[in-house]
Design brief:
This protein has 513 residues and is an alpha/beta fold. The protein is 45% helix and 11% strand. The chain is elongated and about 110 Å long. It binds glutamic acid. The site of glutamic acid has 8 residues, from loops. GO terms for molecular function: ATP binding; glutamate-tRNA ligase activity; tRNA binding; zinc ion binding.
């Protein structure tokens, strides 16, 4: 079988981490099998779909390295196909027009609730007579199209993650709405009891402008089937929240005489307290993770581990390497807990491997966002060594703002510890001597700093440690911080070492006043 999979995001928000993880699993499986990975934009909800979300989703997928082989296909451009298929169901007698008003459907649901029954549509308009239909239409009622679901049906599939899954027709909420009245707005779907017990979160919105008035506005569970069949999708790999949609979709494949694909429902992503990862956890979109300073490689790598593990427990790999190892028998059924420490660790591993030249363009936006007007080319002489110096201590790219803080302004405040050091005996003379030597000797390398320190140490006959500690206090304003010699080279290139030594000397002088 030729493997064809797809990611089918609804552009009603930015690329969500759950969608991205589903895309990762689809991509891994496609690449593992030498198959095709398609992108389909499920934009039938015209009210909530926005082109900027489509753009964000495509950018995010590309950023993560999840290149697609076909598409993007837009559902909004495929309405004639959906309408033809709805008509086919009507013609076959497998679907019918139902004329309940939202109020009637609400009343039905309330009565069921009062009887402590699960809400469902009671199929009461299945066999309307021509007279009844004419009367409803004369009243100006608008019909939805309902697909017949027999209570006695058993629906089974062999899920690649969950194994054998079976549903009873009677648990699907009665005959399901496959198309909403074209001009009825969202009222019908809002009160559509047949879908209220499922996770049918993809109901398409109303779309009166695109309606031909005949079969209305086709909804998610229907269009997804038509598209997956039309696009010859072999495996539908999607989040577990869609499990409840699958039996309905299988019935639709059968009704339309289409081949049922293989399903794999991947575990949900959970937060640290075991609930579904949501907006309340602060980050949900791939862009949020990017802004926090995770690299694309690290986030993609981490997502492969959200619900899947490599046979030899390997944890660091590119998507291409993971694709070689990927299989569904190593995908967990249980929810995948989001582990920030693991993501941080993976991110740091990638950052520590990077050269200064690779890292600099990744750090720059974070420094710029923090308000420093830097230029990758004009400032390269000091930014490159800075990037190289802090690389081994970065966990998230954003850490560069804190770790780079010593290098952005000509002078800095002295911490109390730095002041203590500067106040020690002989420090003023030592710093004067360094300043004098500095005016003679340019500092272009770590070696240059060392020979300058040696010269001063010898000339003054003091301990090297005193010079080193005092220099740290004077140049960095603190006793903690990055490598002193490397920092000094950077500060020298910026022209900041002299003003800082002068400021340190002035500070020492102020102690005795
Ligand atoms: N548009 C749906 C979603 O974003 C696609 C579900 C599916 O893969 O069938 O969840």
């Amino acid at each position: 079988m030729s493997v064809r999979v797809r990611i089918a995001p609804s552009p009603t928000g930015n690329l969500h981490i759950g969608t991205a993880r589903t895309a990762v699993f689809n991509w891994l499986f496609a690449r593992n099998q030498g198959g095709q990975f398609l992108l389909r934009i499920e934009d039938t909800d015209l009210e909530r779909s926005k082109p900027e979300f489509t753009e964000n989703i495509m950018q995010g997928l590309k950023w993560l390295g999840l290149n697609w082989d076909e598409g993007p296909f837009y559902q909004s451009q495929r309405m004639p196909l959906y309408r033809a298929k709805i008509q086919e169901l009507l013609d076959k007698g497998l679907a019918y027009r139902a004329y309940e008003t939202p109020e009637e459907l609400n009343a039905m649901r309330e009565q069921q609730q009062a009887r402590k029954e699960a809400p469902r549509y009671n199929n009461q308009h299945r066999n309307l007579t021509a007279d009844q239909i004419a009367a409803f239409e004369a009243e100006g009622r608008q019909a939805v199209i309902r697909f017949k679901i027999e209570d006695e049906r058993e629906i089974e599939w062999n899920d690649l993650v969950r194994g054998r899954v079976s549903w009873k027709g009677r648990d699907l909420g009665g005959d399901m709405v496959v198309a909403r009245a074209a001009s009825s707005g969202s009222n019908f779907s809002g009160s559509n009891s047949s879908d209220s017990n499922s996770s049918d979160s993809n109901s398409s919105g109303s779309n009166s402008s695109d309606s031909n008035g005949d079969v209305g506005q086709p909804l998610y569970n229907f269009v997804v089937v038509v598209d997956d069949a039309d696009m010859k999708i072999s495996h539908v790999i999607r989040g577990e929240d869609h499990v409840g949609n699958t039996p309905k979709q299988i019935l639709l494949y059968e009704a339309l005489g289409m081949k049922v694909p293989i399903f794999a429902h991947t575990p949900l992503i959970l937060n640290e307290s075991g609930a579904k990862l949501s907006k309340r956890d602060g980050v949900t979109s791939v862009g949020d993770f990017q802004a926090m300073g995770f690299t694309a490689e690290a986030l993609a790598n981490y997502m492969t581990l959200l619900g899947w593990s490599a046979p030899d427990a390997q944890e660091l790999f590119s998507l291409a390497e993971a694709a070689k190892l990927f299989s569904f028998d190593r995908v967990n059924k249980a929810g995948a807990k989001f582990d920030w420490d693991k993501l941080d660790w993976i991110n740091s591993q990638y950052l520590h491997e990077k050269s200064a030249a690779e890292l600099l363009p990744m750090l720059l936006p974070h420094w710029q966002a923090a308000g420093y007007a830097l230029d990758a080319e004009a400032d390269a002489d000091w930014l490159l060594p800075l990037a190289g110096m802090i690389a081994p201590s970065l966990t998230r790219l954003k850490d560069c703002v804190d770790q780079g803080r010593f290098f952005f302004t000509p002078t800095m405040d002295f911490s109390d510890a730095a002041k203590d050091q500067l106040g020690k005996e002989g420090v003023a003379e030592a710093m004067q001597a360094v300043l004098a030597a500095l005016k003679e000797t340019p500092i272009n390398s770590v070696d240059d700093t060392q020979s300058l320190i040696n010269t001063v140490t010898k000339a003054l006959g003091v301990k090297k440690g005193l010079i080193m500690r005092s220099l740290r206090a004077a140049l960095m304003g603190d006793m903690q911080g990055p490598d002193l010699a490397e920092s000094w080279v950077i500060l020298h290139r910026r022209g900041f070492d002299q003003p800082r030594l002068e400021a340190a000397i002035a500070t020492i002088q102020s102690f005795s006043q």
